[in-house]
Amino acid sequence: MGLTQDGIQDVFGVNHVGHFLFTLLLLPTIKASSPSRIVNVSSIVHRYPPSGGIEFDKLNDPNVQTAIQGYFQAKLANVLFTIELSKRLLDANVYCNCLHPGVINTELSRGHFATWSFWMKPLARIISIFLLTLDDGALTQLYCATSPEIEEKNYRGKYFVPFGVLGKTSNYGKDEELAKKLWDFSENFVKEKLGDDILSKCFD
């Protein structure tokens, strides 16, 4: 695992900080286009972060976690971001939810499988048989983005699993105090790197 140009773990930067900034910059347009949706793709592995959930004091250290540990932490950040953002949009006609899409047969693990020995590679092919197809892997995202039930049932800050079913997060994934701490960290990080006014109009 490395660092981004801004000095934060690349896994965390790609999976959380970039999404955080991109979403907030789009918020004025999203709210102007209401009723609208924000869908964050997390993962079931959000259940397995480091102790404490988010290791804020170690996010500028590329060697303190493996890439897998960093990924688990970042997927928890997706859930926590959804919780806090949804709270801040309660008075807007914007429905913010997150999801675990399932374990899908994509090329995401190709680098990992490439390191397996010749005798282990058949196991990878067997595992792939039990993974979701690309089409099935998109169903929960589509549900959150398009289903009338999201508005009809006022689903906000929820976590869904395949296929469009309400799921349960980990205890860390329910921690509103941790969600607020992550928000403050992310906001301060963005302002430090890009200036105090970068997010000034997001919630106008």
Secondary structure layout plus pairing:
Layout: H1 10-32, E1 36-41, H2 67-88, E2 94-99, H3 110-114, H4 121-129, H5 134-137, H6 139-146, H7 149-152, E3 159-161, E4 165-166, H8 176-194
Parallel strand pairs: 1-2, 2-3
Antiparallel strand pairs: 3-4
What does this structure look like?
- The protein is of the alpha/beta class and 204 residues long.
- It has one domain (10-101, 138-194): Rossmann fold (3-Layer(aba) Sandwich), CATH 3.40.50.720.
- Helix content is 46%, strand content 8%.
- It has helices spanning 10-32, 67-88, 110-114, 121-129, 134-137, 139-146, 149-152, 176-194; strands spanning 36-41, 94-99, 159-161, 165-166.
- It has a four-stranded mixed sheet with strand order 1-2-3-4, sandwiched between helices.
- Strand 3 and strand 4 (165-166) form a beta hairpin.
- The longest helix has 23 residues, at 10-32.
- The protein starts with 9 loop residues before the first helix and ends in a 10-residue tail after the last helix.
- The model has no long low-confidence stretch (mean pLDDT 89).
- This is 31791_t:CDS:1.
